[in-house]
Amino acid sequence: MRWVLKLLVIGLALGVSAAAASTVRLKDLVEFDGVRGNDLVGYGLVVGLNGTGDGLRNAPFTEEIMSNILERLGVNVTGEQFRPKNVAAVFVTAELHPFARAGSQIDVTVSAIGDAKSLLGGTLVMTPLNAADGQIYAVAQGTVIAGGAVAEGQAASVVQGVPTSGVIPSGARVEREVEFDFVNLSTLRLALREPDFTTAGRVEAAINREFGRGVARMLDAGTVRLDIGATRMPSPAHALGRIENIAIQPERKARVVVDQRSGTIVMGEDVRISRVAVSQGNLTLRIQEAPVAVQPNPFSEGETVVVPRSRATLEEEEGTGLAEVPGGTSLSEVVAGLNALGVSPRDMIDILKSIKAAGALHAEFVVR
């Protein structure tokens, strides 16, 4: 078995050719300083539910907000008690996109916070959405599109998806704009989503090649500063529009990510393994109980006694033996060889952990 694994690894190493590194647009690698969204949140009420709303005894805040809404509409409900089942209190969340202008529309997500069973078919009543500064930036209203369904009978019920959460496409209208003096910026920082000195250096070189002069400067592994004035473009928007589609070849850290629950293994092409030997086998322990009943002689005064009898065996299944992996082999080739030998994903994860513990796996090892 040892030579089989070794031949598989060597054969894969000879048959796999190095693929050309792919390039990525600059806009997919960096975030432009100041060009960002803002989170919004609001507390509202969904009405028109088919008896699947909040139980007001368990969710008194629903009755409170319903009373406030009715009073704002001129309906006096002071001292009144009502127990409708077609309303539900919800949190409404949204993201205010960068450069969103007053009057534009954004999507919102609606989530029940009480004991409502479903928001299917409900309508969100006008709900103001606040940002972190406490100001109202948008107002949401519309019909909720729930993400699931509920069916009930007298003795059974079935739930598919999450009916207590839904979305309203274009359900909020922007009422206030975020003030940001983008036009008068003299410098702009590009923040890499995955900080890396090599990638940042390539971004700097590519921008300088585009404009023919030193307008970009790498500050650290995650930041490149862009001198807007040196680009001689009419505005920062023109400068970003010219550089955001520049193709960059990014560098990535060697990383292996495993999920023990699902047995998933994800790895990069730069993961390498030093010379190491691997042995994998299983032990099987079996214990069998076979009690024996011993009866007394006929016409005697004895009693029946149960005598316990156990049988324990320890068996070692034939494993893959001691397999030697040559140095410089990529992890994908090793995993392909183990798959060809029928090694289960969970055993493969244990093998990778052991290789990492032995110091032969040269990559960041992430276990989820």
UniProtKB/TrEMBL annotation:
Coiled coil regions in record: none
Places the protein is found: Bacterial flagellum basal body
Cited Pfam families: FlgI
Any single biological process term in GO: bacterial-type flagellum-dependent cell motility
Signal peptide: 1-21
Any one cellular-component term (Gene Ontology): bacterial-type flagellum basal body, distal rod, P ring
HAMAP family cross-referenced by the UniProt entry: FlgI (MF_00416)
Protein name, per record: Flagellar P-ring protein
Organism listed in the record: Thalassovita litoralis
Gene name of this polypeptide: flgI
